[in-house]
Write a structure and sequence with these properties.
This protein has helices at residues 3-11, 15-37, 40-57, 67-89, 117-135, 139-150, 155-162, 166-190. It has 191 residues and is mainly alpha-helical. The longest helix is centred in the last third of the chain and has 25 residues, at 166-190. The N and C termini lie far apart (53 Å).
């Protein structure tokens, strides 16, 4: 089935099309939200919110980009808004859910069965350092880096998602890598 036909089915409010949408894209939406907010429960809520938004806004989708690109833009914006509102309310500091015992299903902590306890501990510590460094990056750098390196998006797709030029995206990713390298060195030597 072509993407245009699928989109038309969504615009016609076909229930089976919506089920297929969730089935096809829930992993993509969840992993993007989780990479940005780094909290399993928030990522689950944002995934549901994203599909509600898609349902109500599908009629505005013009088809200028792929459906998945449009969805990345929605989940990225929702996740960033979520982080901003959390900071504004100052109810909680930014949480590192990597350590939470209740988040054992966290994709970051999924390890091979043959890893030794030392390897598991080292991987968890490295993940924690990486996310701590990521959180210190400026927002646009962090999003571009996550989309490219964790979500495997091409530079062109990132341009569409973030609504930036190719040179701007290249610059963001280059600066993100430089800043991450510096942050990780500092964090590593703090240990």
């Amino acid at each position: 089935m072509s993407e245009q036909f699928f989109i038309q089915r969504l615009k016609n409010r076909e229930e089976l099309a919506y089920r297929e949408l969730v089935s096809r894209y829930s992993d993509l939406v969840y992993s993007t939200a989780y990479a940005i907010v780094q909290n399993e429960l928030d990522a689950e809520d944002l995934t549901q919110e994203c599909f509600v938004e898609i349902t109500s806004a599908i009629y505005r989708f013009k088809g200028d980009s792929k459906l998945s690109t449009w969805m990345y833009r929605i989940v990225t914006n929702l996740s960033l808004y979520h982080l901003r509102s959390k900071k504004r309310k100052k109810r909680f500091g930014f949480l590192f859910s990597i350590d939470d015992d209740e988040n054992k299903s966290n994709p970051i902590n999924t390890l091979k069965n043959n890893d030794s306890p030392d390897q598991v501990l080292e991987q968890k510590e490295n993940s924690k350092l990486l996310f701590k460094a990521l959180n210190q990056l400026p927002e646009n750098q962090r999003i571009a880096f996550i989309l490219h390196n964790m979500e495997q998006q091409s530079y062109k797709e990132i341009c569409d998602i973030m609504e930036l030029s190719l040179s701007a995206v290249e610059s963001l990713i280059f600066r993100a890598k430089q800043n991450l390298r510096k942050q990780l060195e500092e964090l590593y030597y703090e240990k």
